[in-house]
Amino acid sequence: MIIDCSLLNLIQRPFFKSDKLMFKFTFNSFVPFAGTLCGAAILILLSTIQKAFIGITIEPSGFIIPGLVGSFAGYFLASWNLRIHLHSKELEGHVRERTIELQDLNHTLKENITRYTEMFENMDSGVAVLAPLDDGQGFQFVEFNSAGERIENISREEILGREVRQIFPALEDFGLFNVFQRVFQTGIAERFPATEYKDQRINGWRENYVYKLPSGEIVTIYNDVTERVRLENNLDRLASTDCLTGIPNRRRFLENLDREFKRAMRYGHTLSFLMLDLDHFKLVNDRYGHDIGDLVLMGATKACENILREVDEIGRIGGEEFAVLLPDTRLPDALQVAERLRHEIASVAVPTIHGDVSITVSIGVAESTMDATDARDLMRRADKALYRAKKEGRNRVES
Question: Which of 30, 92, 169, 357 has the lowest tally of Cβ within 10 angstroms?
Fold first, then answer.
């Protein structure tokens, strides 16, 4: 019995760490061993009784040795059975834990999908997800949100699965298709500034931001900025246009002058500049009032527009002062234009209760030269010519 317990301790030590499991192992493995020993003892007792009373001897070793072998076999089988049982329990625990983790991940994934879907559908900006075709030679709609449907006045059922140029045929002229291809090739996101898009179905301004997903798909987030552009243009027009005559004010005209002067210097073109001043305009305001003075200013502007070409530019740079740009015009031709303007303005007659009011104009003319330093130099020379015209009696042209 002592040997058996030592053997049990030796075998069970690597596998079991709790007293409860040790007891279970000892009990399960000791039962077949103890049963065999008891059986062997009974056989020995029977053999002794038979020998004493009957005279027949039964050899107990024939039963004891197989019994011992069976007991040890049962002992080890029981231990391995318990080990397998414990491993199966451990595996069940791991499976249970992993199942819980997967359930949590699945729940998190569903929440993320729901969050993404809600965000996608409730964005105020249009969003389109495009799958590349033929290595970026084309792009196919795979997602399109509600804002996109509203902006483009089209349902997603009409466009999903179709190539973008089938829905937006002017996309290449618009310039956005090239951005799709570039972002697909480089993976670098790009902002596409507000640009006017026009086809048979759509006419408006769009602003886009394009980037590439890890999947290789292209996403474009865009807004209809037509109203914003219209308001900006109106504000720009108000800030750069003379509210009375409708022609460029001093700020805008000087910007145009700088642009034309640089162009003329770069390409070796000629540029002539005219300074106009309405003669004795202050007397008109004083005698007839500012309302009549405004009519005179508008009449003079209209007279100039009747003479000038589309490429010529006129601006109001002061109260009764105007300026005119004549691109690709030499000084002799500019002088002829100035004379025509002088006669046309002199023919303007503004009716009043006191009779028609007319006015004359003095004009100074200057031509740009290759040694001119800047546009203001051209303007100063025209202003000096204007001063000479006034000094010489007004209602005349000087250069």
Answer: 92
First-last CA distance in the chain: 137
Amino acid residing at 241: T
Nearest-angstrom CA–CA distance, 255 and 91 = 82
Q: Which CATH architecture has domain 124-228?
A: 2-Layer Sandwich (3.30)
Instruction: Give me the residue label for tokens 């697909």.
Output: 184
pLDDT, tens only, 273-306 = 999 999 999 999 999 999 999 999 999 999 999 9
Largest CA distance in the chain: 174
Q: Which two tokens stand for residue 315?
A: 């601006």
In the sheet that holds 218-224, the strands lie side by side as 138-144, 126-133, 218-224, 203-212, 190-198
Question: Which residue, among 147, 203, 150, 151, has the nearest Cα to 174 in the 3D structure?
Answer: 203
* pLDDT at residue 26 is higher than 80: no
Placement of tokens 């010529």 in the chain: 312
Which amino acid would we find at residue 107?
H
| Fold of the domain spanning 241-398 | Alpha-Beta Plaits (3.30.70)
In three-state secondary structure terms, 358 is coil
Tell me if residue 81 falls in helix, strand or coil.
helix
CA dihedral 32, 33, 39, 41 (to 10 degrees): -160
Q: Mapping DSSP to helix (H, G, I), strand (E, B) and coil, where does residue 234 land?
A: helix
Name beta bridge partners: 362. Answer: 277
